[in-house]
Amino acid sequence: MVSLKITGMGKDHAEIMVLVNMELDNAIKKHPFWPECNIKRAAIVNEEAGELVREANLLDEGKGSIQGLKTECIQTAAMAIRMLIHLYQDEIPKDVTNKPQRFNHLTKEYINSTLIKNVTHLRKSMGFSQNEFANRYNISRSSVGSYEEGRANPSYLLLIRLSEDIEIDIKTILTEDLTRR
Questions:
Q1: pLDDT over 70 (residue 175)
Q2: How far is CA 136 from CA 16, 68, 107, 164, in A?
Q3: pLDDT in tens, 123-138
Q4: Range(s) of the domain holding residue 162
Q5: How many domains, in total, are found in the chain?
Q6: CA dist 178 to 3, 120, 165, Å?
């Protein structure tokens, strides 16, 4: 089970965020591969939005249900979040000419080496063994080892939770050597 710290929201807002997160998890399990092409990503979100419009229309005509509309809202939100996650995970923002727009010094190799150092440093500075860190973030101990050895990258959701716990933004975790702080 994943714990999620939601502040500044009422109970209904928190419940909605949990439902969207559950839908996102289910979608990732059911369809683990996500297109690299942004047009295809947007088309998936658009398809969900179309189903949302269809359900809203049915409800307005007296043929649909509030629950059906809520379900379509949740599914559309989950796909929009999935697209956002992948946009954040893309290497470096590029324009249509495929040239880096910013962060020219931030190559994929630099980000990966910085992330490896930072995950290890943060885990240790939090006083966690690999096992304790894995339990805290509901991941396997072998995943922690893979992150620290550079064989895999942590999910964006893990980075979100970690950044909230240590109160450092994700961009800093990805781009700054925290061992020098």
A1: yes
A2: 23, 35, 30, 13
A3: 999 999 999 999 998 8
A4: 108-180
A5: 2
A6: 25, 10, 15
